[in-house]
């Protein structure tokens, strides 16, 4: 099964697109434009992932939209592998858990839309020591070999973050709320 998941660059792009943020949807032509790959190679990979049950589909007008099947038994595993590959797990481990009163952390920007990037955009909500945060972010950047850009909010809630950053499709990565 692993060979099926990682055997092509197009498939890796599709997994990143759909499995990093399960709310992401796309149709064939939009993926062709975004990836710069041929529609045929994308179609083949979409069909393979759909046949394996990893993608679900919905027809809207004359377009077939794809999205991650969060009910698939491998969904969480693939999602966690992507977080590790991108270094987001290291950010959570090295930065968030040592900052004190962190209420929520969101991923925004390209990664939240399933696009690879050299920059990871984060939103922190809580009362944090900014100097200490900058020090930890510097260390995390060295570990993951990517730049981290962030915003701080002292008070907020998930609904307001989602509303403010709607176009960036914020993805809740961590919360101290149960």
* Overall tally of structural domains: 2
Arithmetic mean pLDDT: 85
Question: Rg to the nearest angstrom?
Answer: 17 Å
Roughly how much helix do the residues carry, as a percent range? 40-55%
Strand order of the largest sheet: 6-5-4-7
Order of helices and strands: HHEHHEEHHEHEHEHE
CATH secondary-structure class of the largest domain:
Alpha Beta
* Strand portion: 25-35%
How would you sum up this structure, described in words?
The strands form two sheets. The protein has a four-stranded mixed β-sheet. Strands 1-3-2 form a three-stranded antiparallel β-sheet. It folds into two domains: 74 residues, Arc Repressor Mutant, subunit A (Orthogonal Bundle), CATH 1.10.10; 89 residues, 2-Layer Sandwich (Beta Polymerase, domain 2), CATH 3.30.460. It has nine helices and seven strands; from the N terminus they run ααβααββααβαβαβαβ. With 178 residues, it is of the alpha+beta class. The radius of gyration is 17 Å and the shape is elongated. Helices cover 46% and strands 25% of the residues.
